[in-house]
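Incident review: delayed structure delivery

Summary: a single-chain prediction request sat in the queue longer than the usual turnaround. Root cause was a stuck worker, restarted by the on-call engineer. No data loss occurred. The affected request and its eventual output are reproduced below so the record is complete for anyone auditing the incident later.

Affected input:
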Amino acid sequence: MDKSDYKINIIGAGVSGLVAAQVLENHGYQPHIIEATDRVGGRVKSDSVEGFVLDHGFQVLLEAYPVAKKYLDYERLELQKLLPGALLFNNGKAQVIGDPLRNFSFLIPTLFASVGSFSDKLKIFKLNQLLKKKSIADIFKTEEKSTLVYLKDIGFSDRIIQQFFKPFFTGIFLETELATSSRMFEFVYKMFGEGMAVIPKGGIQEIPNQLKANLKKTSFQFNTRVKELSQSDIVLEDGTKIKSQFTIVATEASHLISNLKNQEVQWKSCDTLYFQTTSRTYKEAIIGLIPEETALINNIFYPTSVDNNNENGKNLLSVTVVKHHELSEEELINTVKRDLKTCCGIDDVQFVKRYAIKKALPQLDHLQYELSSTETKLKTTIFLAGDQLLNGSLNAAMLSGERAAIGVIQTLEGGLIIDELTSEYS
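Output delivered after worker restart:
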C-alpha cells in the first residue's frame, strides 16, 4: 500500500495535532485532521476585536524552547520581545526588577528595589548561573517538591517570595500557592534565562497559523465534533462513522475512549480581561505584577507596548485574574477596575472583552519533559498527544505531537526512528 493511501486521522487541530501532522507529512503520509471549532490553535488562539488583537489569555512564547525552535520560523512570526524583568506595583507606585546581564538598564533599579535584600538578589544571580549549567534532562530527573518549598530551601526571604516570585509564577502556573512542581519552575526559569519571552506580531494565534501553513498534504475538517472512537472507527456527534487505520487523539481523550472514562484531566482556570485606555502608565514592553494579597488581579500588560497589529492607534491593557472568585461578569469588571486604580494608579479604562478560560493549563503531578513514542500508544491503532502527557507548555505540546506521530510511523514501518532532538535534551 502506498503511504498516501493510509487513513491516518488526528483529532484536534491544536499545536500537538499540527506538529503530529507535520511529522507524518515529512515521512510521506497524508493525515486528516478533525477539529471541533472553526480554526486551528486549540488553547492558542487570538481574536480581532475593535481593531485590537486579543489573545485568549496572556500568553507568551519562550524563544529558548528547544522543540519550538525546530518547528517554528521565528523570523516569519515577527516576534516582539518583552523586557527581561517586571514592574512591581504597590499602592499605585511601581519599582522595576530585572536581569541586568541581558538589559543593563535594570542594574541600578534592581539593586535598589525594596522587593528583596541584597542577599536575595545575589541568590537570583546564582540561581541563573546554576540553571544555565543544568541540562533539561537533569532538571526533570531531580526530586520534585513544590516551588514554594524549593525557593525557601534556597534561602530566599519571605519578602521576595511574596513580592516577586509568587505573583510572577502565579501568572505562569495559574495557581496562587506556588504548589507547582519545582521541575517546572527550574525548566521555565532556565528558559527565561536562555532566551526572551516573545509574542508574534499578529498575536499568539500566528503560531498555529504558521504550523498549518507549513502543511501541504494534510486535509482539515472543521466544526466537527467527535463522539467516540474505536480501533477502526471515529464516530462523529451526528452519527457519521469515519474509517481510521490509525488515530492520534491530540485533545482530551477521556470522553472519547471507554477505558479512559475515569481519567479525566483536571484543569487550571483564569480570567483575562481587556480594556482600552487613552494613555499607558508605563511605555516599556514589560509585565506588571500586583503582589498585594487583597487584590484580585495578578498581572497586567499593555499588548500595544509591542507591535501587535493595533489598527486604531489606541492603547490596549490586558489583566489576568488567577484567584478563584464567584463574581458575575459585571462584578468582576468593577472589582478589576477598582484594583487597577488602587494598586496601579490606572483609572482611565474602557472594558473591551473578557475571556473566562476554564481549561487554561492541565493540572499535573510528576512532571516529565520527554516521553518515548511507545508511551503515546494507548491501543494498537490509537495514540495520544497533548501537553497533559508531560507538562503544561507549548514545548510539551509540540514534543508530544512529534512523539505520537513517530509512534504511528514506527508501527507502520517497523524499526526505530532516531529522533533528532535527543542529543539536545542531555
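Verification: The radius of gyration is 22 Å.
Action items: add queue-age alerting; document worker restart procedure.
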